[in-house]
Amino acid sequence: SPFSVLGEIVVNEVNFVRKCIATDTSQYDLWGKLVCTNFKISFITDDPMPLQKFHYKNLLLGEHDVPLTCIEQIVTVNDTKRKQKVLGPNQKLKFNPTELIIYCKDFRIVRFRFDEAGPESAKKVCLAIAHYSQPTDLQLLFAFEYVGEIYHNPAKKVNGIDPGGGGGGGIGSASGQQTPLFETYSDWDREIKRTGASEWRVCSVNEGYMISTCLPEYFVVPSSLADQDLKLYSYSFIGRRMPLWSWNHPNGSALVRMANIKDVLQQRRIDQRICNAITRSHPLRSDVYKSDLDKCLPSIQEIQAAHIKLKQLCVNEPFEETEEKWLSSLENTHWLEYIRSFLKHSAELVYMMECKHVSVVLQEEEGRDLSCLAASLIQVMLDPYFRTIVGFQSLIQKEWVMAGYQFLDRCNHLKRSDKESPLFLMFLDCVWQLLEQYPAAFEFSEMYLTILYDSARISLFGTFLFNCPHQRVKESTEFAISKNIQLGDEKGLRFPCVWDWSLQFTSRDRLLFHNPLVPCVQNGAVKTFKRSKKNYSSTLRGVPPALKNGIISEQEFLPRRNSLILKLKPDFLQQTESQSNSMEQYFRDWFAKPVDLHGVILPRISGTQIKLWKLCYFRWVPEAQINHGGFITAFHKVSLLADEVDMLNRSLRQYKSNSSLQGSCSELDQSRMYFRANSLNDTSAAPDFLSSSFPFSPVGNLCRRSILGTPLSKFLSGAKIWLSTETLANED
Q1: Which residue positions in the chain have pLDDT lower than 70?
Q2: Pick from 604, 698, 696, 679: which is nearest to 640 by CA?
Q3: Residue 513 DSSP one-character state
C-alpha cells in the first residue's frame, strides 16, 4: 500500500483524474486516482512518468505526493463557466471544478484535470484537500496522529525507528554518531567541555519551564551568576528570556544571545551585571561587545517580502518576458542583498571574537529570530565541528529548536500568514554560499541542505513543528490525556526526529548527503574535523583572490552604524576609526593567504560572489534544467576519483595485512560514495539522468512554461499565477 505511514488514513479520493505533464499538450498526461489523506495528497497511477530518467525516492512520499504542510494555495477552476476560486478551509464551492492547481511552498505547481471524473467526487476531493491542508489547531497536524498510533501500538515502529531519537548515525557516516538534541543537562555540559568554556555552567533554573516557557529547560550561564540572581533578573527580560550562552572561542571569548530588557528603570543596572558576569567568565577579563541585530539586519517582515518577490520571479513570471531584465529583477527582490548583510555582519563579529578577543552579545527584541541566524553563522565560520553533518545538526538543535525559534509560526504550518518569515531558509542559503565558496570545508553537500529545507515541511517530524520545547510538552501532554495515552515519567510525547534520516531515505540514497571532497576514509573511519587551539590562530587566511578588486572592496567590511557598540567603555567609541582600519586589515590579510579548511572561513561578499541557490529555487522549473550540466557533473567526477582513492587505500591495507581474498572482496564492496568507480582509472561517462535539477525532477511541475516551451499563461487564459485571495474574493 502507498499509505504505509502509521496513522495515515484516506480521507477522500477520485478516479479517472489526469495529471498534466505539459501545458500545451495532453499527450504526456498521466491517468490515475487522486487521493487526499491526513498526511499528504497522492496521485496513484500505473503509467510510467514520461521524459524522466531518474527519481530520488523518499520512503515517506511517492513520486507524485505532496505533504499537506507543503501546500501553500489551492485553486479550483471551471473551464466552461470561466470561474476560479482560491479554496480556504471550510469554504463552499459553488461550481464543479474541471481542474485543480496546487501551489507548493517549495515553488512547485501541480495541476490535475477532472474531465472524465465524476463532478461531485472531484468537488469533494478538492474540499477535502483544502480542509486538511489548512488545519486550525496544532494537534490536527499529522505528527500527533502518528505518535498516538505509536504509543497505542508500540510494536508498529516505522522502519523500526523509535520516535524522538537523535539519529545522527542515520546519514551513512562511519562514525555512527548521534546528534545531541540539547534536551538534557549532559548535552550542554559536553558542549561546555568541547569548547573549553571553563568559566560557564549549565543552569537548571528553568526545569519544568518554571521561569520561561520559551527557553529550554537547561542552558548555559556565567559561573559567577547565581540561580537566585537569574530568577530575579528574568522578570526584566522580554519573555523572561535570560541571556543564553551559545559558544566559546579557544581564546576565551564567548558568544551570548540576549533579549531586550523591558524594565527601563532596571535596564542599566541589570545590563551592567550581566556584562560584568560575562567579562568575569573571560580568562583575559576582556570587554563585552553588543550587537543590536534589530538595528543592523533586515527585519523578519523585510525577509518575508523578499521571499515573496523571489517566488514571483522564479515561478510566476513568463520567462520570455523577464529574460532581458532577469538580473535587475533578482536584485529588486533584495533576497541576495539580505543574504549579504547576514554574512557580512556575522564576519564582523567573527573578527571581534577572533582578533579583538572580546565576548560578543547578540541583542534582539525577543532574541529568537535574527539571533538564531547570526549565532549559527558565526559558529559555522569559526568552528569546523559545525561543518560536519552531526555538528551542523547539533547546531540547529541548539540555536534554533531549543532556543525557541518559532517554527510553527515562521513556517506557517497552520496558515496564519501574518507571522510567516523564511529565516531558516535564509540560514541554509547563507550556509550554501559558504559551501559554494569553500566546497572542501564542509562534510555535507548542497543536496543535504536542500533536503533538510524540504524536511521542515513534512509534518511527521517534531523537530520543526513547534514554536519552542515547552509547546511540544504542553500540547502533546494535552493530546495524550485526550487519547488516554500513559506518559509515565516522560515530559510530553516523543515525536520522530528529522535527524533519523533512515525514516526518509535508504542508506544508499543517504550517501548523496556526503561531500566527496571531504578527506578520504582512514583506517576504516571517515576523517572528521578536529578542533584545536592551533586551528583558530588569527594567521589563518582564505583562498587568494583571482582579481584583488573583485573579491572585496576597501569599504566592504567597514562596520555599519550601530553594528558593533561597546556598552561598557564610552571612550572606545572614539576609537571607531582605528577599529575600522584594523578590521579592514584583518580581512585583507585573511584573503591574501591560503585557507585552512579546519579553521576559520570568511565569506566573500562582493557583487558576483553572492549567488542564487539554483538547486533549491530552480529545481522544479523545466526550462531552467540543464541536462548533463550543473554542479552535479563535477560532484559525479569527484565522487569517482574519491572512490578510486578509497579502493587503492583498501587494497594497500589488505596487501600490508595479507588478508584473505574472501575478506578483501567484502571490504572492496564498501563505499562512501553515491557514484562509484567500476574499476581503477574509471573513465566512464556521466549517467544519462544527471541534470542541474538532480536529484529532483521538474517533470510534471508546471512552472511557467512546459517542457516543450509554451507559456503557462496559455492554459490559465491570462490569469495570474499565485492568485491572491483578495483578487478572487468575489469570483465564485
Answers
A1: 1-3, 51-55, 155-176, 316-323, 417, 519-576, 659-670, 680-684, 703-732
A2: 679
A3: G
Is 12 in a helix, a strand, or coil?
Answer: strand
Distance CA 628, CA 689 (A): 8
Residue 633 in contact with residue 675, Cβ under 8 Å? Answer: no
Distance in angstroms (rounded) separating the CA atoms of residues 434 and 428 = 10
Q: How many CB atoms lie within 10 A of CB 56?
A: 14
pLDDT of 111 reads 93
The residue to which cell 584545536 is assigned? 532
Cα 387 to Cα 389: distance, rounded to the nearest angstrom: 7
Cα–Cα distance measured from residue 290 to residue 363, given in angstroms and rounded to the nearest whole number: 7
Measure the CA–CA gap between 712 and 470, rounded to whole angstroms: 45
Q: How far apart are CA 51 and CA 48, in angstroms?
A: 9
Cα torsion angle, 157, 160, 165, 170, sign = negative
Q: Are 100 and 127 in contact (CB under 8 A)?
A: no
587 half-sphere exposure, CB direction, 13 A CA radius: 27
Mapped onto helix, strand or coil, the DSSP state of residue 134 is coil
* Contacts of 645 by beta carbon, 8 Å cutoff, 6+ apart: 520
φ, ψ at 522 (rounded to 5°): -125, 125
Query: Strand, coil or helix: what is 248?
Result: strand
- According to DSSP, residue 729 is labeled T
pTM of the model: 0.88
Q: With contact defined as beta carbons under 8 Å apart, do 307 and 424 qualify?
A: no
User: What is the torsion angle, in degrees rounded to the nearest 10, for the CA atoms of residue 472, residue 450, residue 109 and residue 60?
Assistant: -60
Instruction: Give bridge partners of residue 255 from the DSSP assignment.
Output: 247, 360
What is the reported pLDDT for 521? Answer: 35
Angle at 698 between CA 627 and CA 40, to 5 degrees: 150
Strands (E), 45-189: 66-67, 71-78, 83-86, 99-104, 109-113
Report the alpha-carbon distance of residue 86 to residue 93 in Å, rounded. Answer: 10
Q: Which three cell numbers stand for residue 420?
A: 510567516
Predicted confidence (pLDDT) per residue in 308-329, tens digit: 999 988 886 555 555 678 888 9
The 10s digit of each residue's pLDDT in 673-698 is 888 887 766 666 778 788 888 888 87
Residues 365-394 as b/e (b if ≥16 CB within 10 A, e otherwise) read: bbbbbbbbbbbbbbbbbbbbbbbbbbbbbb
Quote the pLDDT of residue 727: 43
**Cα R_g (the chain), whole angstroms:** 27
Residue 379: name the closest of 256, 243, 537 by CA: 256
Backbone angles phi, psi at 393, to 5 degrees: -65, -40
DSSP H helices in 517-668 = 548-551, 576-592, 614-618, 631-657, 661-668
Domain 10-134 has CATH 2.60.120.10: no
Cell match 569599504: residue? 555
- Distance in angstroms (rounded) separating the CA atoms of residues 51 and 28: 9
Report the SS3 class of residue 511: helix
State the span(s) of the chain assigned CATH 2.30.29.30: 10-134
Residue 288: which residues within 8 A CB-CB, separation 6 or more?
Answer: 275, 278, 279, 358, 359, 360, 361, 566, 567, 568
Q: Where are the beta strands (DSSP E) in 23-68?
A: 30-37, 40-44, 66-67
Please report which helix (H) or strand (E) contains residue 455, including its range: helix 446-455
